[in-house]
Amino acid sequence: MLRKILHKVRGHQTPSRKILEDEYVQWLSFANAGMMDRGNLYCFDLAIRNLPTDNPIIEIGSFCGLSTNMITYCLARHNKHNKVFTSDRWIFEGAEAGRRIGHSGIDHTEYRSFVMDTFKRNVSFFSKDNLPHPIEVFSDDFFDMWSKKQQAKDLFGRDVHLGGPISFAFVDGNHTYEYAKRDFENIATFLDPGGYVFFDDSSDEAGFGSSDLMKEILVHPDFECVAKNPHYLFKKKK
Fold it and tell me: Looking at the predicted structure, is the pLDDT value of residue 10 above 70?
């Protein structure tokens, strides 16, 4: 997680982005913790404005809900009503359960609970008109459940039916090559023709395994890159 934070800080110092200025998002970002590149909103808006269907949106990795709330805001901004499903276990790299953080009286188990409660509070407030369905599982398990069209209980205690085609996916989970590739392959299985997949921390300079994956998707016959800002947004051609 610290590596990702440092990458975000460096990214904010690089002005080579298309920036979508929005008053609401500015106020949202003041109140909602998160590690969001300023170029991401442009990509969210581009994809959501052009969604091919009203099929669900999937987000892999949620943290405190900043990107989740940006996605639901873009949906409202363009008068779209797609349901949003998120997948996260809130297990952080380098965070050993029960170990105290620095010289504080807080351990990583308490920290995880705090972040999850913060996520719930943030999306309950900022996304109350289209409350997402957070599923507390890793993405591999999420897609297994999705492929089997299973019933699940979301973080708010609601019963929800999983499965079917999806219109857009945002990938911000495990950034290693192996995990990112599995996420992409799973998403590609369910993604609508004309649907979008957006990878956070995938820029050429990011240094994550997901950056290596981008080179493969760039030559994939079924996908085309529609934005690089600096992270990659792809559209499924067929």
Answer: no
Predicted TM-score (pTM) of this structure: 0.93
Q: Which residues face 228 on adjacent strands?
A: 232
The answer to whether the beta carbons of residues 176 and 184 sit under 8 Å apart is no
Identity (one letter) of the amino acid at 6? Answer: L
Quick: pLDDT tens for 58-92: 999 999 999 999 999 999 999 999 999 999 999 98
Q: For domain 2-233, give its CATH number from 3.40.630.30, 3.40.50.300, 3.40.50.150, 3.40.50.450.
A: 3.40.50.150
